[in-house]
Amino acid sequence: MDPRLVPISKFLAKHLRHAPGEIGLTLDGEGWAGVDELLAASARHGFAIAYDDLVAVVETNDKRRYAFDATGDRIRAVQGHSVAVDLGLEPREPPETLWHGTVERFLTSIFERGLVPGTRRHVHLSADVETARKVGARRGRPAILQVAAGRMHRDGLTFYRSENGVWLVDAVPSGYLSRMG
């Protein structure tokens, strides 16, 4: 992504996933906000976003975090919300193994409590080791956890897959986790 678009992406992440009310934005029940309302709200709060830059963020974000609706009049984050929204995701059968990137300092707690969503609505899991490594590296040297997703699914836990390929689950009990390497 163009480095000048990164602050816009971070602004969108905050206000489309966690704090829409801080800028006077309202999300509907599925997490959608009007594009015109978003642009006006951002401008009112000293962070004017040009429409073309908004389109560029949606189209070039390496994690595909945002989407326009079919009309192009609405925008939403495709996962990662801490505010209550229903993204309309259908339960899916996961691959046998999924991955989670974290850092060493969290491992003791994770192996005691499992993976919990914290302030988010779901635990995020990756389909490949490299993506999990990138996620873990955001906070330091990554530690990669292998998740027995197939076994979890057979044991009755429900998985979803977001539009951008991130696997979502309510929690991962520690008995389904092992450290890679």
Mind sketching the topology for me?
Elements: H1 6-18, E1 33-34, H2 35-44, H3 51-60, E2 66-68, E3 74-77, E4 91-92, E5 98-103, H4 107-113, E6 123-125, H5 129-137, E7 142-147, H6 149-154, E8 159-161, E9 167-169, E10 177-179
Antiparallel strand pairs: 1-3, 2-3, 4-8, 5-7, 6-9, 7-10, 8-9
Structural commentary:
The chain is of the alpha+beta class. It folds into 2 domains: 3-77, RNA 2'-phosphotransferase, Tpt1/KptA family, N-terminal domain (Arc Repressor Mutant, subunit A, Orthogonal Bundle), CATH 1.10.10; 95-179, Alpha-Beta Barrel (ADP-ribosylation fold). The protein has 6 helices and 10 strands. The chain has helices at residues 6-18, 35-44, 51-60, 107-113, 129-137, 149-154, and strands at residues 33-34, 66-68, 74-77, 91-92, 98-103, 123-125, 142-147, 159-161, 167-169, 177-179. The chain has a 4-stranded antiparallel β-sheet, with no helix packed on it. Strand 8 (159-161) and strand 9 (167-169) form a beta hairpin. It starts with 5 loop residues before the first helix and ends with a strand.
Salient structural properties:
single chain; 181 residues; alpha+beta; Arc Repressor Mutant, subunit A; ADP-ribosylation fold; 2 domains; four-stranded antiparallel β-sheet; 19% strand
Q: How many β-strand stretches?
A: 10
CATH topology of the largest domain: ADP-ribosylation fold
Unreliable segments of 5+ consecutive residues: none
Largest sheet: 4 strands, antiparallel
- What top-tier CATH class of the largest domain fits best? Alpha Beta
- Secondary structure class reads alpha+beta
Counting DSSP H or I runs of 4 or more residues, the number of helices is 6
| Ends apart, CA distance between termini | 31 Å
- In round numbers, the mean pLDDT is 94
